[in-house]
Amino acid sequence: MVVRRRFILCTALVLAAVSAGALPPRAGQAQFPRDIAADNVERIRLQPEDAAWLDHPDFKWQHLQTEHFVLHHDQKMFAAKVARMGEQFYAAISADLPDLQDRTAPARSHIFIFRDPRDWQTVVAGTPGMEPWTASFVRGQVMFLQETGTATSEKMGTLAHEMTHLVFNRFLPIRLPLWLNEGLAEYYGEFAYRAARGMGQGKRNAFRPLKSWTPLDVLLQATAYPLEPAEVHLFYTTSKYLTGYLLLRHPREKWQAFFAQLLAGQPAMSALLQTYGWADIAELKKDFARFAR
Ligand SMILES: [Zn+2]
Fold first, then answer.
1. Distance of CA 39 from the midpoint of ligand 1 (Å)
2. What's 38's DSSP letter?
3. How many domains does the chain fold into?
4. Is residue 93 in some structural domain?
5. Does residue 194 belong to any structural domain of this protein?
């Protein structure tokens, strides 16, 4: 889920942490989006509540297909960009999961694109459990993407955020804790588009000082988004900073060990303290404060 609308915290920065393999491949034949007829739309991974949007009489969908996605849209220019960048983000994010397989392939995930704010309100109102501030979201194998904002980098940032959730749903056999799921999505959301454009990197300036953040003991144990809308943005920002802190300011082997423990089913909190060598959460809070301030 992505909060409406996060500001870009830093403009001079790139995904410094991704491995060399994360450089996306050039768009090849397999990634070239092609039009498909409604009758040929793959439905194997659509739940009934998703298919209802596809069959909704108010939407005159057209369809584009790539190697991993079927896109439903009403304007081809933007949809084709989403298709191409979506495949590049897929390549970059999955390259950071070298030991995992795409468990959904060859089935495709679906991307619904909404451009009219009123349509988007209909989607949010018609989806149980959705917060009113939701700007875009992923449910299972389906992305509901709203085209908002004016800058391409902003739109593609939202796509990269949601693509992180979608790739995780395809690759991960476990559910990540909320802070890590949103933290990584924010991290890729901010940096993946620039990385895909081949823009330079500036690790040191990646994270500007924060005035305040969500207390880490609250963040690490959260299983739901904050109730107070004012705290939602802070929650996302703190998640991104903690994720960036773990990825950028520590040896990569620690991240890999941490992630391996999560995949093995260990609770996130103990895996985190153990692999990074903090005696307790108070010690982690002290170190994080030095990074975030
Ligand atoms: Zn999200």
1. 31
2. G
3. 1
4. yes
5. yes
User: How many angstroms separate the alpha carbon of residue 158 from the centre of ligand 1?
Assistant: 9
Separation of CA 257 and ligand 1 centre (Å): 24
Dump pLDDT digits (tens) for 251-284. Answer: 999 999 999 999 999 999 999 999 999 999 999 9
CA of 28 to the centre of ligand 1 (A): 28
Alpha-carbon distance 198 to 201, whole Å? 9
Question: Could you count the other beta carbons within 10 Å of the beta carbon of residue 22?
Answer: 19
**Token pair for residue 147?**
């085209």
Distance (angstroms) between ligand 1 centre and the Cα of 185 equals 6
CA of 146 to the centre of ligand 1 (A): 13
Give dist(CA 69, CA 13) in Å, integer. Answer: 29
List pLDDT tens digits, range 17-59.
333 334 444 444 455 899 999 999 999 989 999 999 999 999 9
Please indicate, yes or no, if residue 150 is contained in any of the structural domains: yes
E strands along 105-215, which residues? 109-114, 134-139, 142-146
Domain of residue 57: give its range.
Answer: 2-209
Taking CA atoms, 89 is separated from 22, 117, 171, 216, in Å, by 9, 25, 14, 29
Classify residue 123: in a domain, yes or no: yes
Residue 111 Cα, ligand 1 centroid: separation in angstroms?
15
Q: Which residues contact 90 (CB under 8 A, 6 or more apart)?
A: 68, 163, 166, 167
Domain CATH for 67: 3.40.30.160
Token digits of residue 281: 């959460």
Query: What integer best gives the mean pLDDT of the chain?
Result: 87
